TrEMBL record:
Alphabetized UniProt keyword annotations: Copper, Disulfide bond, Membrane, Metal-binding, Transmembrane, Transmembrane helix
Family per record: Belongs to the SCO1/2 family.
SUPFAM superfamilies: Thioredoxin-like (SSF52833)
Record: residues binding Cu cation: 72, 76, 164
Disulfide bonds: 72-76
Protein name: Protein SCO1/2
Highest taxon listed in the record's lineage: Bacteria
Lineage of producing organism: Bacteria, Pseudomonadati, Pseudomonadota, Alphaproteobacteria, Hyphomicrobiales
GO molecular function: metal ion binding
Organism: Rhizobium mongolense USDA 1844
Transmembrane segments: 6-24
One Pfam family of this chain: SCO1-SenC
All residue ranges annotated as the Thioredoxin domain in the record: 34-199
Amino acid sequence: MKNFRVAVWVAVIIVAAVLGWLTLNITKTRDMPLAEGPFGVPFTLVSQSGEPITEQALRGKPTAVFFGFTHCPEVCPTTLFELSGWMEKVDPAGDKIQAYFVTVDPERDTPEIMNQYVSNVSKRITGISGPPEKVADVIKGFRVYAKKVPVDEKDPNGEYTMDHTASVFLLDSEGRFAGTIAYGENPDTAVKKLENLISKG
């Protein structure tokens, strides 16, 4: 019985020590400044107008970036429509904030398709596509989840949809990560986030 009590106390001390270490490190992490460098990775892709576009397009003014695809039934068109409306509200003149829609399905989403799709939803957002391997590098570099999912499990090479991250990434004028707007976020909260992004520059 005595040995059992000793074992219990030893376990309690070990757990307490681990919790103390975790608390210390979490506190340190919380106090650390955000990364100073631009978010994502360097890239050379193609805009919806067919022109080359690089990561430098995400500099110079606050930027919203959304990853999705044109065959998306609900999340993507809803997000693009809402984002465009929020931008009109916080920046009526269209000179303080910019936005980009990067495809996670470049095999189907050519620049021409992106142009037709995005232009029908918004004049404030620019579509980006490119070679699949280069788009894959950007998806990975922005820590975005994207996965091809067959519509019919028995036909893995047939029709498919895409599972993907549904948040809008917010970057400051130097391309640094400044937060996200979640899918389904309260509109007032989303607008406030964009206003704060603009005010910080």
